[in-house]
Amino acid sequence: MRGDDTSESDRAEQWNRPTDRPNRTNRDDDVPTARAMSDGGSSSSDTDATAEEGAEDDASLAYDGDADDAPSADSDEGAGSEPDAVETAVGGSDADEPAPTSALPADTLSVDETSVADAATTTDRPSGAGGVRAESVNLSDPRYYLNRELSELAFQRRVLHEATDEKNPLLERVKFLAIFTKNVDEFIRKRVGGLKQQLAAGITEETPDGRTPREQWREALTEARSLLERQSRCYREEIRPALDEEGIHIVDYDELSAAERREVRDYFESSVLPTLTPLTFDPAHPFPFISNQSLSLGVLTRERPGADLTFSRVKIPRNQVRFVQLGDDDRYVLLEDVVRANLDLLFPDVDVVDTALFRVTRNAEVRRDEEVAEDLIEMIEEVLEERRFATVVRLEIERDAPVEVLEILRRELELDEREVFHLDGPLDYRDFFELAALDRPELQLPDWTPQPHPRLGTREDGRPIFDVIRDRDVLVHHPYHAFEDTVQRFLEEAANDPDVLAIKAAIYRTASDSKIIETLIDAARNGKQVAVMVELKARFDEENNLEWAKKLEEEGIHVAYGTIGYKTHTKTSLVVREEEDGVQLYSHIGTGNYHSETAKQYEDLGLLTADPDIGQDLVRVFNYFTGHSMHRDYRKLLVAPGNMRERFVDLVRTVAQRARDGEDARIVAKMNRLEDPQLVRELYRASMAGVDIDLIVRDICRLRPGLEDVSENIDVHSVVGRFLEHSRIFYFRAGDEDCYYTGSADWMTRNLDNRVEAITPIEDPRLQSRLDEILETILQDTRNRWVMQSDGTYERCRERVDEATTDVHATFMESARERTTRH
């Protein structure tokens, strides 16, 4: 496959694609065609996806959303984010935006500053029939923006499709039921919770798409309810019957034989009953606290005929097996059904009148003012405690629940009717990961083991990693390349190398048993200067990071706990090494976390380089973490909140100007989310100028492609499959010049303005060719790729009968195996 960074040939000219494209506003082509790049194709091993793919041991990590993004009453990202409000970093309104004043880095596209400055008011080359001038279109009009909440739910619809897709192995479909539940839970906690906070604060400002917080809250709940109902139908009508056919039976309690009921009752009495704690609500007992996302039974009892009903809550224990096995066969009954059927043992001498299974979701959006907090650690601990008792933002309850239970829950939890989801059981599919992990390989994807990098090999190969990196840059691609033999090895060798003077690392998320943290501790014990930036505000990982930060400090390591006003999201590390010709800096800049488990399931990139300019840039970034002042200018890196927004705007405008001048112009950008209104407008202008644009956006995308005379030169793609697409790649071509970047930031306002992020140029032609290959294969994928329509809906690319299937994940797994064998 083209793009192996061991190749000695220089990269051929890329992507000379014609810029004239059909008007796609009303296109009816059901099979969007992947447009091949001029200098090569995807691997010849593009075999059927189901034959190539495989399953991971810890599937619960796959497709987790980014847990750090929620609107709140004090947020400038949800309500109140007017399209022009975010542009102060660059300057100017939509009608009159001067060009950024900072110079472009030496490695980027050459630019005529006068031309770029005039770009917003220059007549754009027609992009199709009836081309228009850019200034004649009000690009701040809400009609040009999709709602971010509904866009995220559209992504969850694509995730749910993996459960309904009969081409996926059965237990893979079961796994996606669990993944979907985790994702929607997080969305409700963060996004809906944040919107509810805005409602309570009386916020009415509209988002760029013209919706108020109340409108978003209503529409998000309506769409989430529809998706959860579809999930329920999928299980009842598709998954459960298919499991039965394969001999995996999830049975109702009333289907059990008398002998099985006795066996289950004995199990309940000996193992489950001692763990249960009934909490009664009556004049002598206050309404019980109901923990977030816990599965509960509401029980109505009566002490004697004619007496009032009494409500009690029984929590279904999370530390018990959800699927209670019957005998030695693959025959199971759900734990909540076992508890419900044996309540007489928990409530003796009363009549159990009725029951209802329910589940509550609490708001995750609890914030503190960092500027006035005396102790950041204490502040985070308070946030964790308050999150446990936060406002309830959703109630899921069985569809046939008794009215008495429903009324009590709604009243005591202070819920609006819209926040109540009546669903057919089972509620809470998170535990279906247990079912997906059954030892039934014929119903699962083949296992995948990440491979050694062809240039780095394994630890046993003998050559020090620093020698390899100093020869030339190394690009690692997870989960195809093993994290342990690349990034982890980079830090482990540094920790034990007598010539290494210092190690610095920024930790955003890491495993609970992180070997990376242990390696940094070993480095300190070996006499290295070690400094670690641990982001305590990484949502839902605060407690884990807090524990690691304390452990690092106990070892005498310099620990920074974050930066006031910003969240540190960059994935970077720096090694300072004494060598014969002086001190050498070795850097790692990645798109993914230093997390050994997610590196097996998330698709990510990382650059290992000895480039002194990049190293010096990282020195500045790390000095900001432990100091208090931030540099705004960097030699090569794009750093937020420093120069990143300006540089990206400059790059898009430069490409647009070249298109106006009649030169070849192309943008391909791969990211998780595209939300920033200014960059959306810049992309619209570039399209109107004739730039050919492909956006590979995993989930949220505000931009609307295919709008006549505005975005008809833009295609938006989304890949949903075995691995979570998590890398960011940015490619810009202007005439005969092109440049490539990768790093931690999406094109979101929060990433560009409110986080510390790092994007690095990729300058080695061999590595550029590898990025070409990645982008090209994605754009040719016919198994996992979806294409957005101008109304924000997505159509899945259909596999052509007369063509081989291209599966980006299967292609790169096979490629990694081949390269390992070859080297």
From TrEMBL:
Residues 260-435 form the Polyphosphate kinase middle domain. Residues 38-48 have a biased composition (Low complexity). It holds the Pfam family PP_kinase_C. Residues 465-629, 637-803 form the Polyphosphate kinase C-terminal domain. Its EC number is 2.7.4.1. One of its GO terms (cellular component) is polyphosphate kinase complex. It is an enzyme of class 2 (transferase). Residues 49-79 have a biased composition (Acidic residues). ATP binds at residues 183, 602, 698, 726. The keyword Transferase applies. Residues 1-112 are annotated as: Disordered. Residues 1-32 have a biased composition (Basic and acidic residues). An intermediate of this reaction is the autophosphorylated ppk in which a phosphate is covalently linked to a histidine residue through a N-P bond. Its cofactor is Mg(2+). Residues 145-251 form the Polyphosphate kinase N-terminal domain. The active site is at residue 569. GO terms for molecular function: ATP binding; metal ion binding; polyphosphate kinase activity. It catalyses: [phosphate](n) + ATP = [phosphate](n+1) + ADP. InterPro entries: PP_kinase, PP_kinase_C_1, PP_kinase_middle, PP_kinase_middle_dom_sf, PPK_C_dom2, PPK_N_dom, PPK_N_dom_sf. GO terms for biological process: polyphosphate biosynthetic process. The keyword Phosphoprotein applies. Keywords: ATP-binding, Kinase, Magnesium, Metal-binding, Nucleotide-binding, Phosphoprotein, Transferase. PANTHER family: POLYPHOSPHATE KINASE (PTHR30218). Belongs to the polyphosphate kinase 1 (PPK1) family. Catalyzes the reversible transfer of the terminal phosphate of ATP to form a long-chain polyphosphate (polyP). This is Polyphosphate kinase.
